[in-house]
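Fold this sequence, please.
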Amino acid sequence: MKKILFVSGLSIGVMLVGISFFAEQIGLDNDSGWGAGRSLILKTGIALLIISALGIVFKDKLTDFGQCISRAINKFDKISYSTQMNIFSLPVILIVIASYIWFAQPNFEASRFNYYSLLAIAFKKHQLYLVEEPSSALLALNDPYDYGLRKRSGIEDFPWDASLYNNKFYLYWGPVPSLILVFFNIEELSHIGDEYLVLAFMFGLFFYYVVLSYSIWLRFNQALPSWLFSVSVLAIGLSAPSTWMLNSSRIYEGAIIGSQLFFIGGCYWVYSSLNEKSPSPPKLILAGLHWALALGTRITILPVILFATGMTLLYVFKQIKPFSFKSYFPTLLRLCAPLAVAAIGLGWYNWARFDSVFEFGLKYQLASVNYTTFQNLFSTDYINGNLYNYLIHPLKFQKQFPYIRAIENRFSNERLAGLLFISPFILYAGLFVKGIVSPKKDQAKGFLDNWLMLIFAGSALISALTILSYYFPATRFSEDFMPSLLLLATSSLGLGYRNLGNNIIRKAYIIFTTLVAIYSVIASSLVAFPPHRAGYAAAFIKGIYQFLGFR
């Protein structure tokens, strides 16, 4: 049978080569030159000839090779499920790490943005304000927060978006990243740009993605093929807007990614602690520290932290039977003490800078909007418009690589791309409703499973509502809810699979899920592709086209 197959391939190869040479004589091509079609037919014919000839000559060796492959597959099937996951996921993890570095393009010579380092230098000098002093021209303005007045006066010699108060510059972003940097000396800090912190935070976030997804998969998704775990890791790691944000690594992106790193990290340590017979004290302390660091990195994550803390304490409360405050208090203390310290520290930090416990400096920032008079930062009136901006904002299609581009939003001057178009993998998050509302016996693994699902769902919803209510739309803000949403989607894959009884439909589900994940990675990467580097990739793709015979 194999010999017949190889002989048939040899015959077809000869026929295709003949057609390519005599295409003009037999009427298939009116052009005497070698166009794309004739070149492709010739290359296909030559490839068939080579493969078929090798198959005939080395038929016996191919049979032995096939048997070796078959034996290897049988041995692989006997390996534990978790080991198979490790084997498949390792190359994917390396791909994601390499992609992060490639998109970030760290420049060790010069940095455009180094706000975190500037604040760290101020801390090392035992002050809360930046070393740079406001110019006399800026201070002489009647209203230095008026963008139009500054523009007309030609005053631009100040750190953009910094807060001006009592003739000093401050930063309204959380101080935690700068506190991390104080371990470097001033000379080193002068070379550490915000992009290094963004890249480091992204690596940390991806680490927690992997370890948390791994735990989730073994608990929820063992009915799925082990290789599908690596596909989900790829989708979580490279779905928008992560690579997009690495292209524009500033303090804005650093605050968002840093807060998500510490929040997701806290979720991992809580889940790991509660997954034991009795909550592990060190892990609960680590969870509280992570969530405290998240709060000190980006204050808008406060509602999410409160929700996650409340859900955790509720879970512990339900587990203590009979309930006693004496048994409950240690857990309460370990989880909430770091958060209390962070809240008190931030209150003092604000009071020392702006004479108010609740003022973080947003009101006094030097930006394109005068925040001393503009009060509608958050409003439910913005939700409908932002639903369009973040979910279904159209893309621009073009003939040149990278083929798709985000379209600039006229109001914010930010490029936006609908997440449903570039990262449809998040739609699998909706499957969790089925598991929570009407779980089957094989899906109901206790309140801990529901707790984890609700943590992701509630965190994503709270963050999304916060961002949707904010007047200024920007792609980077979607990272406030995407990590939770992507982890929820991964957690829900097994629910969708188990709800399908037919084996053929289940196989179709796996194939479709794989295609959706791969599409999300490709679309997200293309939209995030740096414009100044598109020429290299376009030349590479053009070379492939030419080799295949396409123009």
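The chain has three domains: 2-76, 85-108+193-548, 115-189. Residues 437-445 have pLDDT under 50 and may be disordered.
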